[in-house]
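G., the chain you wanted modeled:
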Amino acid sequence: MEGTMLLKDGAAHQWTSTKKIWKNLLVLASVFLLSFTAFGAIQNLQSTLNSEAGLGVVSLSCVYASMVLSCLYAPFFIHKVGSCKWTIVVCFFGHILYTGSNFYPSWYTLIPSSVLFGAISGPLSGTAKITYLTSSAVEYAKLLQHDSVEGDIAMFNGVFYFLNDLSGIIGNLISSLVFSAGTQDIGKGDVFCGAMDSHYVTNSNTTNSTGLPDDKQHVIARYTLLGVFLVCNILAALVAGLCLDKEANNKELSSAEPIQVSQQLLRTVRVFKDIDYVLLMPLLVIAGMSEAIVSGDINKSYVSCVLGIQMVGYVMICYSLASTVSSPLIGHLNKYVGARSLILAAVVANAVLLIYMLLWQPDEDSLATILAVSGGWGVVRALWRIQLFAVLGTVFPSNHEAVFANAKMAGSIGKMLVFAYSSALCMDVKLYICMAVLALGTVGYGVFECKTRNKKNQGADTF
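Predicted structure as tokens:
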């Protein structure tokens, strides 16, 4: 009788614990959905909306340059704050300031807020978010006594990004509806579009220094758009603070001995000495470059240049929708085909898209093709994010914070490079650079797989 009661109590505890884990996963995804509804839409519009002297792309370059440095101190930041939960809450205030600065964009408002945004992005997206997801997946696997945790990590990432990517759909839909009510030629190029686009040109006949028509209706629309985004940022911080529980490993953080800044930085930097991480790093960089080239160069050279800024949001909705729908499918598919096959699929798909864009010349009748290409980039985005972090979480099970901080740093380096040379290079040159980095990453991953397979064979022989 007592044994039966113990089994029932154990089952009840397991049910309660797994239910709590799923609740936290949904809350985490929801608050990131709210906050990145604002940032994602604003980022997609920066290259056209604030095109004067390249202010938009320069500000994005500042975001990711600052993010690279923030990834170094991200693990220490989390330990100092005390948990991933409160790190997320604190960092969301940087999102609020960034959105606010876009009400009056200038070199004196947008650049400082961009630097601050990047400074909190390492601890937020690069470490706290991924560490929270991974620790939740590990705890979930332990409760259900799963043999392998890789599948659970991929599943949790898939569910998170499925909900998180709705931010792209919502934010871009809002921006497109707002701008569709205005002038239809904002951002259209006067010379060449596509791979032949050589510099930033916007139709200046109807626009002022902000990239919008000098009309009261459009000024009100701009402030309304940013006002909605600002409310989203504030709600994200409030919901995270009130509804998100501290992560399962928070006791380890709070009970551990105080960590010196130099020790934590050294721990983070030491990841670069691991040959497995070095081999995977080019793929992490190309994942970041792919996202940046879509939100910056493709939106400018293949969308607004051909169709006008009002279509950017609709095209990015297709991008986000493809990423959203494919994320849980990829997370589930990982259990059957493995990360190796899916990473190779990402390499092939990325290469095909880059080559096609190099050869393709868009025109005003290319809307269907533009949407299809955008959807393809969305699937590639989902493949990179889910599979690379699943591999890292498996290869480095005891050093998640430092490894994920470095992974975020690598992706930020890729984005920073794309935005930094965006206004200086021709579109075709940018595509060639991405191809070169992708080729390097493919070779590195091949070496990593061979190295991993040899280790497994040696372990089997020893046994």
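The chain has 14 helices and no strands.

Shout if anything looks off.
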